[in-house]
Every structure is written in structure tokens, then in C-alpha cells.
Amino acid sequence: MNTTPHLIDSLVADAAPVRPLRPPLERTLTWMLIAGFILTLLGISHGFRPDIDTCLRDPLFLTGLAGSFATAALAGGAAFTVSLPDRSRAWILLPLPALALWMASIGYQCLTDWIRVGPGGVQLGEAATCFSLVLLTSIPLWVAMLVMLRHVAFLRDPAAAIAATLAVAAVAASALSLFHNVGASAMVLIWNFGATAILVLFGSVFWNRVSSWVNPR
Questions:
Q1: CA–CA distance from 217 to each of 82, 103, 155 (Å)?
Q2: What is the pLDDT of residue 26?
Q3: Which of 16, 139, 173, 174 has the largest count of CB atoms under 10 Å?
Q4: pLDDT, mean over the chain
């Protein structure tokens, strides 16, 4: 019968080298570079919204855009950090200040410029364009996030899922602000809050199932 020291020696002898994970900050920067590359491709293929020059001179628009990008970066950092078993779950609170700024800017816009949809209402084609833009932005970012979080600790799955999907949703909402001319405050509210809520809900519910395809346990 093998003793404990002999068992430890046999396990060490057969152990394969393991490449350590990159630091959360480095992985966050890598993921944000991927997001920037995707947005650049969308800008080339789809084009910016017609009134982008006016929007870039609007402090409220810039505040909301800065809030969404900051939410994406901080939520991504929270996902990569909270996925490590030796880090506190409190890291999931990291994006809350940026998220509050982003949501407040949207809410203020709705209060000051409420419902300018026009006599034609919300057109189905416009909604389809918004939805396709969200998909084109979020799907590759989701795949990248899943690959980079494939070694997430099992007990940290829910926290990592919430933070990761919030990061993806924030980038998708930023893409809508840059590339889609949402002329009504109601539509701004629907597509920013709605896209964020749907993506976060989807990621939280299906995270374990989808991540098992990337890294079967």
C-alpha cells in the first residue's frame, strides 16, 4: 500500500506543466482591444450615424458614451478578477459607478427630451437594424469572453457570468449610440436598457451550458 509521500511523489512525477493565467488587467486590455477592433470594422462596413458630428459636441451624448465604455472595461475587469478563486467576490461591484453614470445619462435624456418618435411610430425595419447591430457586436465579444474565461472556477460561474455579460452589453449599447441614429428618447431607453437586460439575463442563465462547449468539465 502506497503511503501519502509516495502518492504525492507519483502525482508530481506525472504532472504536466500548466501555463499560468495572465493577470486580469492584461486580459481586460486584450478584450477591450478586441472590442475596439470590432467597432472599427462596424464603422467601416456600417458607417457612423448621420448626425455623429453633432452628437460628439453634445456633452450628454459624450457622458453616456463614456459611461458605457467605462462600464464595459470595468465589468470586463471584474469578470476576469472575480473568476479567480483567491479574489473577493466584491470585485463584481467594480463597474457600478460607471453603470450608474451611463444609466443616469440615458434617464436624463429621456426626461428632458421625451418621446419624439414621430407620426410614423417605431418602424419594424429600424428595430431589425438595431437588433442585427446588437448581434454583430455581441456575438464575437461573447465568444472572446468565453474563451478567455474558460478556466473560470466553477463556484465563481454566476458572478463571472453577470460581469462578463454586462461588459458585452455595454459595448453593444455603445455600438448602437455610434452607428444607429436613434432619434427618440424612448428608443434610446428601450435599446440601451433592453439590450443590457436581455444580454445579462441570457448570459446568467446559459453561461454554464455555453461555457461547457468551450471547456468541458
A1: 20, 37, 13
A2: 93
A3: 173
A4: 75
Residue in the block written with cell 467597432 = 39
* Angstrom distance (rounded) from CA 109 to CA 74: 24
Are 192 and 123 in contact by the 8 Å Cβ rule? The answer is: no
Quote the CA–CA distance of 157 and 82 in Å, as a whole number.
Answer: 9
User: Burial of 76 by CB count in 10 Å (0-12 exposed, 13-18 middle, 19+ buried)?
Assistant: buried
pLDDT digits (tens, 9 = 90+) for 106-156: 777 666 655 444 444 444 445 566 677 777 888 889 888 888 887 765 555
The one-letter amino acid at 98: A
Q: What is the pLDDT of residues 83-114, one digit of tens each?
A: 888 888 899 999 999 999 988 887 776 666 55
- The C-alpha cell at 90 is 466584491
Q: Answer with the residue of higher pLDDT: 15 or 75.
A: 75
* DSSP code per residue over 3-46: -HHHHHHHHHHHPPP-PPPPPHHHHHHHHHHHHHHHHHHHHHHT
Q: In whole angstroms, what separates CA 86 from the centre of its chain?
A: 23
Q: CA-based diameter of the chain, in Å?
A: 84
Q: Name 109's Cβ contacts closer than 8 Å, sequence gap at least 6.
A: 60, 64, 185, 188
